[in-house]
């Protein structure tokens, strides 16, 4: 990690083998590392999630027989992770959207 890289700020969730396969964990780690280096990811790896908030996105990780999502926001000084979850339907669950928005709001209020 270089001094220019953004740190990861974990508000909720973790990435570990079981429940993710080791391959999915490595892929998630690689994509987060790319984000830390300042690159912007797009489909098929990431999609914008403006419903959560400005600069919010969803990383898309395909596992052996599961689909994982990592909700994050790109800040000027960090990559803020709000949720890691297994996606079971076509839509992001309402609870994930609300929890992510609430966590970011709380984080912003405590950071000021």
Task: Kindly describe this structure.
- With 112 residues, the chain is α+β, with helices and mostly antiparallel strands.
- The protein has a single domain (8-111), classed as YaeB-like fold (2-Layer Sandwich), CATH 3.30.2310.
- The protein has helices spanning 22-36, 94-111, and strands at 8-10, 46-48, 56-62, 67-74, 79-87.
- The chain has a five-stranded mixed sheet, with helices on both faces.
- The longest helix is centred in the last third of the chain and has 18 residues, at 94-111.
- The protein is globular.
Strand percent estimate: 25-35%
Order of helices and strands: EHEEEEH
Question: Low-confidence segments, ≥5 residues, pLDDT <50?
Answer: none
Query: How does the helix and strand content classify structurally?
Result: alpha+beta
- Number of helices, counting only DSSP H or I runs of 4 residues or more: 2
Largest sheet descriptor: 5 strands, mixed
- Overall helicity: 25-40%
